[in-house]
Amino acid sequence: VDPDEVNALAQLMTWKTAVANIPYGGAKGGIGCRPSEMSTNELERLTGVFTQKIHDLIGIHSDVPAPDMGTNSQTMAWILDEYSKFHGHSPAVVTGKPIDLGGSLGRESATGLGVVFGTEALLAEYGKLISDMKFVIQIMIFLVSILWTRMTCLDNAAHVKAKFIIEAANHPTDPEADENIQGFMWDEEKVNHELQKYMRRSFLDVKAMCQTLNCSLRMGSFTSGVNRVARATLLRGWQA
């Protein structure tokens, strides 16, 4: 975790949410530590102090923290509890919290399942199914075909024979080589259905952009996201 990485990931979150047409902006944050080497009490105290430092920056209408590397639903519960000490009970201030605290069914599997739905949408364009494909899964990340990390992508790009490379994380490969405020609760089948619908619609939007510009999926995704943010910026009168 360092400022450059956090800034880059915040920008990627902006474009990702815009591509999916989800009403979030883009932000990122983190603490330089080794969670696996810390006790539960140490993690709770660290999370509490971190929340105290940022409680005026986060909120249901501003930045909404979500679990990422080194965190889980318990971390989100601690953030929610500490934030509520300053602003009153506000379950919508974080996503990924435990079900008992108003979390959404299907949240823990949503990222991986979203990758599956996006992959299905891509393969459908070629008349293929995931079950038809040979694939490699990198540890901790679900992928179809193969994924090379940024450290090895350029060195191995010439040797990759995979038809498709599915990026399941934020910027895992080198380009060169909703919990709601109203608190509505859906059952898990409904959550997964809506997720599939969003992923399919997002893919079709990106595909249309690629056809218009005759560009790659990566460039089409960035262009679609940037265009949506630019339009929203102009409509709100934020132009320079």
From TrEMBL:
Enzyme class: oxidoreductase
Top-rank taxon: Eukaryota
UniProt-listed Enzyme Commission number(s): 1.4.1.3
Keyword Oxidoreductase: yes
Swiss-Prot/TrEMBL keywords: Oxidoreductase
InterPro entries documented for this protein: Aminoacid_DH-like_N_sf (IPR046346), Glu/Leu/Phe/Val/Trp_DH (IPR006095), Glu/Leu/Phe/Val/Trp_DH_C (IPR006096), Glu/Leu/Phe/Val/Trp_DH_dimer (IPR006097), NAD(P)-bd_dom_sf (IPR036291)
Glutamate/phenylalanine/leucine/valine/L-tryptophan dehydrogenase C-terminal domain residues: 104-237
Catalytic activity: L-glutamate + NADP(+) + H2O = 2-oxoglutarate + NH4(+) + NADPH + H(+); L-glutamate + NAD(+) + H2O = 2-oxoglutarate + NH4(+) + NADH + H(+)
Gene Ontology CC annotation, any one: mitochondrion
Assigned protein family: Belongs to the Glu/Leu/Phe/Val dehydrogenases family.
Name the record gives this protein: glutamate dehydrogenase [NAD(P)(+)]
Species in which this protein is naturally found: Vitis vinifera
